Amino acid sequence: MKFEIFVTLKKEVLDPQGKAVEGAIKNLGLNSISNIRQGKYFTLEINEQEQSKALSQAEEACKKLLANLTIEEYQIRKLD
Amino acid sequence: MKASVIVFPGSNCDRDVQVALEKFQISTTMVWHQDTSLPKCDLIVLPGGFSYGDYLRCGSMASKSKVMNEVIKFANKGGYVFGICNGFQILTETGLLPGALLRNYKLKFICKDICVKTTNNQTPFTNKISVQKILTIPIAHNEGNYFASQEEINTLKENNQIVFQYCDVDGNISDQSNPNGSILNIAGIVNKNKNVLGMMPHPERVIDQILGGTDGQEIFKSLL
Questions:
Q1: pTM above the 0.90 mark?
Q2: Which domain holds residue A17?
Q3: Is A70 in contact with B60 (Cβ distance < 8 A)?
Q4: Is ipTM over 0.90?
């Protein structure tokens, strides 16, 4: 089973990289774009038959390594 | 006093800290990150550097390395653990210290001498430093912007866990003297039991006049 995982900074955590990217976007004249937040994207395969088992492993990977829950949050999506 | 310095792939201050420890007659053993046991010791140092090339998040991979299970057990039994720079990042990633170290507010790697105020001298790492003393110690980091939730910050304050705060030469703790955007100008904290210290400045780089300063000595002397 294939999954994709997004890890992003929590809303209350300042994202200076996102801010810098936003500044550059504004320099392009794209003034309608705002609130840029930068994050990380992972794809992974899990060798399990049951989706619930696979999901719980993806959750564990997120909680223990892929995301730091002090500052980040994550979303897991199944890929077909 | 005996110390172990953990060496990760990408550590680069491990030998500097060994020189510093041995200057104060602390016999030091270097321990590779894949080891599964620790030599008998009183102090473990997690040195500065770029463990695992700072991949994923600074200190995240190192915090999951084999030897860290032993380091966590050692800390939970009351052994002294001292993380400097990348070592501080590793300690937050293991959960031995609260919070996290984010990218510097201005997105620049900062390498310069800064001043820190010793706001707590009731720890094994600072007990020979007079309280409020200003130390000049270099920083060299890209991710030193200390962040923790408001709840965690309140706990740090209540338990007197904030040990070093960035200040100016006169000791003013202000936004102007905050190099990286850290909450409350935090440069170093201890855990609740005060046996684990993490700090971003590098005391091992100022232990001899020939290196440009001696303020770092005070921390190593406190450990004796």
A1: yes
A2: 2-79
A3: no
A4: no
